Amino acid sequence: MAMGVECVGWAARDQSGVLSRHEFSRRAIGDDDICFKITHCGICYAEAVCIFNKLGDTKYPIVPGHEIVGVVTEVGSNVTRFKVGDRAAVGAYCRSCGSCDDCDNGMENYCHKLLLTYNYEDIDGTITKGGFSNKMVVHSRYAFQIPDKLSSSDAAPLLCAGITVYSPMKRYGMISQTGKHLGVIGLGGLGHMAVKFGKAFGHKVTVLSTSPGKKEDALTLLGADEFLVTKDPQALHAAGKSIDWIIDTAAGKHDLNLYLPLLKTGGHLVMVGVPPSIEFATHLMLPRRSISGSVTGGCKEIEEMLQFCADKQILPNIEIVPIDYANTAIQRMIRSDVKFRFVIDIASSLK
To answer: For residues 137 and 21, what is the distance between their CA atoms, to the nearest angstrom?
Structure first.
C-alpha cells in the first residue's frame, strides 16, 4: 500500500480559530496526481469563516488556505502536464466528478460532487487540508501552471480573489465589450481585483463604498474613475440608472435596494461575496434588472485568467507575511486592515 505524504502546517483546533503548528498526513500520491512543495499561500476571508466555524460545519483540526502555489516534487505515472521542478497552483477546489455536464463544459466549480481544498472528505476518507502547510497532493486536472511572467506571490491571490471576479465578468460580457460602466461594491481582496480587471477591459469603473476613507485608495492606488459613498442619498440619486454591471464583493449584510437603482435598464448585479442574507424589492423587476451569484471558475477559465494577468501585468496588491503572523493577519483582514491581500511566504517561514 502506498504511503501517505507527511506534512506540517498550521491548524485551528477549535472555534477560537487560533492557528498553531500541526503535523498530519495527506493521501498517497496516485497515478494522476502531483505533489508539490508549497512556497506561497494567500489568505482569503473564507479562512476566517472556516476556522471560527461560522457555518457550523468545520472539521477540526482545520488547515486553511486555498490560494496555493509551489514547486512540483513528484508526478504520478499518468501525468503529462507537469514535470518535477515546474511551478504549480491549486485554488478553491481539488476534485470534481469529471464527467457531469458542468465538468464536461469547463464548469467544474459547479459540479455536484465538488471537493473543496480544505474541510471536505477526500477520496481516501481523510479531510482535505489547505495551503497553510508545506506540501500539497492534488489530481493534476485541478492544478494550474504558472506563467513565467507571474511571480508565485502575485499568482497566489489570483486563484481565488482573481478568478472569483474574472469568471462572472467573462460570463456577462465585460471582457468582450468595452466602454461600459462597471460598479464595484467592496474594496478588499476581491474588490480591488474587480477594479483592476474592469480598467483592463476598457470600462469606466466606480467603487461603491460606505467608507469615505477608501476614496484615495480607489482612485489613486487602484485607478478607479469614480468613488460613490453609498451613505449619501443625493449622490445615489444622481447616479441612478448609470451603471451597466455591478460586481458585489461584500461579505457583510447589506441592502441591495441601495444599489439596484444605479443599474441601467437590463443591468446586472453579480454577487461574489457571501453575505448572511440579502434584501431587495421592486427595483429589480421594473427596469428588467437581474441578480445572479458566482463562485470561483472552471479549470480552463483559471488558466486563461492567469495567462491574461501575466500578459497584461494585472497583479494583486499584496503584503507578504511569515506563517507565524497568520493569526494576526486574519484579525487584520477581518478589520479590513490590509491593502489588499495577505500572502504567506511558506517556503521561508514554515520549517
So the answer is: 19
What is the rounded distance in angstroms from the CA atom of residue 101 to the CA atom of residue 162?
Answer: 25
* Residues in Cβ contact with 255 at an 8 Å cutoff, skipping those fewer than 6 apart: 279, 280
Amino acid letter at 196?
A: K
pLDDT band at 314 (very low <50, low <70, confident <90, very high): very high
Helix (H, G, I), strand (E, B) or coil at 197: helix
Distance CA 73, CA 37 (A): 7
**Is 0.90 topped by the overall pTM?**
yes
Question: In b/e form, how buried is each residue of 175-208, taking b as 16+ CB within 10 angstroms?
Answer: beeeebbbbbbbbbbbbbbbbbbbbbbebbbbbb
**CA atoms of 339 and 209, how far apart (whole Å):** 16
pLDDT at 1: 47
Helical H segments across 126-171, by residue range:
152-157, 163-171
Given a contact cutoff of 8 angstroms between Cβ atoms, the answer to whether 58 and 125 are in contact is: no
Rounded to a whole number of angstroms, the CA Rg of the chain reads 20
Label residues 259-273 b or e (16+ Cβ within 10 Å = b): bbbbbbeebbbbbbb
More confident: 3 or 238:
238
Of residues 33, 30, 34, 115, the one with CA closest to residue 70:
34
Q: Which residues contact 157 (CB under 8 A, 6 or more apart)?
A: 42, 67, 189, 193, 316, 318, 341, 343
Instruction: Estimate the crossing angle of helix 163-171 against helix 299-312, to 10 degrees.
Output: 100
Contact 45, 188 (CB under 8 A): yes
Give the model's pLDDT for residue 285. Answer: 65
Q: Give the CA diameter of the chain.
A: 69
Distance, in Å, from the CA atom of 127 to the CA atom of 144, rounded to the nearest integer, reads 22
Report the DSSP pairing between strands 115-116 and 204-209. Answer: unpaired
d(CA 123, CA 34): 15
Strands 135-139 vs 204-209: parallel, antiparallel or unpaired: unpaired
Confidence of residue 282 (pLDDT cuts 50, 70, 90): low
How far apart (Å, rounded) are the C-alpha atoms in residues 34 and 79? 8
